[in-house]
Amino acid sequence: MFLATAATPAPSGSAAVYQTPVCTSDALCNQILDWSGGNEWLATSSYVVIIKPLRIAAIILIALLIRWLIHRAISRLATSTSRASMPALLKPLKEKVTVTAEEGQFIPERRRQRAEAIASVLRSFVSAVIFTMAALLVMGELGFNLAPLLASAGIVGVALGFGAQSLVKDLIAGLFMLLEDQYGVGDTVDLGEATGVVESVGLRITTVRDARGVLWYIRNGEIVRVGNKSQGWAMVVVDIPIGFVSSEEAIAVLKSAAETVAHDPEHETGFLEPPDVVGVEQLTVDGAVIRTIAKTTADHQVAIQRDLRRALTESLETSGLSERIAASRLLPRSAVPPSWMGGGGASSPEQPGGAT
């Protein structure tokens, strides 16, 4: 306890300097005592009244400054990832390989969306860490004993870790899904039980709307495989049965029709490679099947596939091959039905006497 003794001025030339036993070893106490004209209570309470609030304010200001600087760095990094000149070290592994110009034109937009999602997660994580550390420092300044608090927090963390394993699994899976750019909003994906268009992507839940309009909520930790139909390029495959007509003639007709679709201004930017009629794909009891393939962008796959089917079918109709194809599938049959069907033909083994 400080002793309440009267402060006595000591001669110091032209100004009086107050000294008291409670301030003999504290320069700040002596300075406050001198400024206050001998106010001993203010001098002895200077640490609590002045120093602690200043230190708490400094902790808060420094925490806000550090948070602002880190958020700014994260935002600038996220912005730089959408540039084509981004360093290869920061690119996903699958983008480090050589890609064509057509494939590369779709990478910046997807990279921008992924970078924004990751930046949002990083900003939230940084804010939580910085504010937690600042709160602990402020509590330490106020005189709280942090050891029991930290021990209790550790026990609670272990309990939550055992009780919320599925939640942690979902969060970690969602984070790696964003880092690896497995899919994004607007992609058409196959997630096993649900197939459709991704409407939202979060750290814990991914929502997918299927072709019937059903909205599926899928936990990221339960996704074991992802089939993305919207990344990079797509392949259009059209099989046309031609019966038993000449395959060479049918291939020539189909090639001409495929080239017409490729030169259509509506699909000029959709084709990455010219369509190709590869030839006879298989033989069935109904004849040969000719396969036509085309490498397209993922966004134009459905439209090109429909127009290519229509053009190939119309070309067979225009060239007259469709009639020959239909005729080649007809099998020769007797004009007179068997006797067991009510005709006048020979009797069947089941009806030796024939029809009556």
Automatic annotation (TrEMBL):
Q: Which domain of life is it from?
A: Bacteria
According to the UniProt entry, where is the signal peptide? none
Which membrane topology term applies here? Multi-pass membrane protein
According to the record, the residues making up region (Disordered) are 334-356
One CC-aspect GO term: plasma membrane
Q: Keyword set for this entry?
A: Cell membrane, Membrane, Transmembrane, Transmembrane helix
Q: Which residues cross the membrane?
A: 47-70, 120-140, 146-168
Instruction: Fetch the SUPFAM superfamilies from UniProt.
Output: Mechanosensitive channel protein MscS (YggB), transmembrane region, Sm-like ribonucleoproteins
Q: Which residues form the Mechanosensitive ion channel MscS domain?
A: 167-228
**InterPro entries hit by this protein:** LSM_dom_sf, MS_channel_1st, MscS_beta-dom_sf, MscS_channel_2nd, MscS_channel_TM-2, YbiO_bact
Family note = Belongs to the MscS (TC 1.A.23) family.
What is the protein's name according to its record?
Small conductance mechanosensitive channel
